[in-house]
Amino acid sequence: MQRDGACTSLWQQDVPDYQPKNEFRNELFDVIIVGAGITGITLALLLQKQGKKCAVIEAHKLCYGTTGGTTAHINTIFDNPYSQVIKDFGESGAQQLAKAAGNAVALLEQNVKQYNIDCEFRKLPAYVFSQNDEQSKQLDQIIDGTLKAGIEVSYSNDIPIPVPYEKVMVVRGQAQFNPVKYVFALAKEYESLGGIIIQNCRVENFKDDEIKVLQTTQDELSGKSLVFATHIPIGINLLHFRCAPYRSYALAVKLGNNDYPDGLIYDLYDPYHYYRAQEVNGELFMIAGGEDHKTGHNENTQECFRKLEADVRRHFDVKEVSYKWSSQYYEPADGMAYIGNLPGHSENVYVATGFSGNGMPYSHISALVISDLILRGNSEYKSLFNPNRIKPVAGFTNFIKENADVVGQLISGVFSKEKLHELAQLAPGESKVFSVDGSSAAIHKDENGKLHAVDPACTHAKCTVSWNYAEQSWDCPCHGARYSADGEVITGPASKGLKPINIEEKL
Ligand SMILES: Cc1cc2nc3c(=O)[nH]c(=O)nc-3n(C[C@H](O)[C@H](O)[C@H](O)COP(=O)(O)OP(=O)(O)OC[C@H]3O[C@@H](n4cnc5c(N)ncnc54)[C@H](O)[C@@H]3O)c2cc1C
Question: For residues 70 and 182, is the Cβ–Cβ distance under 8 A?
Fold first, then answer.
């Protein structure tokens, strides 16, 4: 199964790409959903079930995006704790978020049961633990906020991993599963109701008239409503300045002593580490994750895997590291996802983005909110997740910090010829963005010594890309667009590839 990186995730191994069954007839759709990750497919099934004629358009294959690289904890607690949500959105905002998360987890569990999905879904408790005084104070506040939000939590005397701790919070009713098996099964159900999936089709632009007309890399498509379930919307939008892209790293390891943790366990460092077990086709693994950083801000992405592995080896009897992979998420400026009307567009154009590390609940919250907006014209959560909200206080510092990049990274100029000779000295596997006198090139030398040169100006907002050694891609630090060594788009928001530079000619 294809994914947006060079590393193989735990969910990909020996899994063939999804093959859509229904033949595509070009007609006017009720709803076109762009993006076939967990968000797009969950929403498509809900709408198709309610009699809407839907089409899901995917630039690559099902689960190619972050859903294929997630670690699939299903939580009603969020990376941005309820104590912070209360500060920024009030106690009623936190209670609404907790209620939405409860509904989301219930929908996911109901889908698993109703469609009898074999995806190793399991309910189990989550544990958050502190390791010093400062973290213990933080944990007290988190517990207080979570209780005020209406979620049952308590202190625990124990955690199911051999790590030293001061205090522990336990939350029951959390869950885990295999996300790819789940999404593939939902897609099959959606198709059995007549839903259309078009893979290898990138939406490049659209006309926002009464009928939305989409320009794609295949046919032109028309729909009455349009949803961007693309993780980050295409084009240049207010939300690109309110969401910051981050990379996060994961390992799946086999333990020598077979002492796999029975729970979802998180520490309180920033970025935090987490541990959980997962069975895949009868084999047990422990998943560990962390070492997050802003996309394009860490040249040595392999080092992130080394640090993560060192952390895991410090605490566990690691027999083998079976998988290592990284993936991308989007941090919202004020800590709350953006779900609803796409800013700057008519009311029947929708978006779901800014999920942070909580896309399992947020994908299902999005499916519930957007299906309500489409089917009933309203949702009880419309204002909480409103993508057009103005929150001058919440997230303001973040907003400035994250967007310093956007301004600082704008570049111009064309390629300078002399410097290509110097770049030809790159070691195999090495990559560099090279700038001189206002001219720049992003050059990658592959393992066979072949040079791949592209214009480093991201086609989305002209920021300069940087090389991600772990996943072998050019990553944009501003809004997270990612490209192959030859400049093809791996991840949006860009819809056009980096301009290739013909080295032969230039040399
Ligand atoms: C390492 C890591 C671990 C994580 N772990 C967890 C976890 O344990 N629990 C949790 O809740 N969340 C977790 N998350 C977050 C969660 O995985 C994501 O929020 C979620 O998978 C996003 O799903 P999505 O369907 O919205 O987006 P995606 O899965 O990224 O799907 C979007 C799809 O849209 C397609 N697309 C994009 N542009 C276009 C276009 N122009 N035309 C057509 N198609 C397009 C892409 O190809 C892609 O397939 C994690 C994230 C990371 C990075």
Answer: no
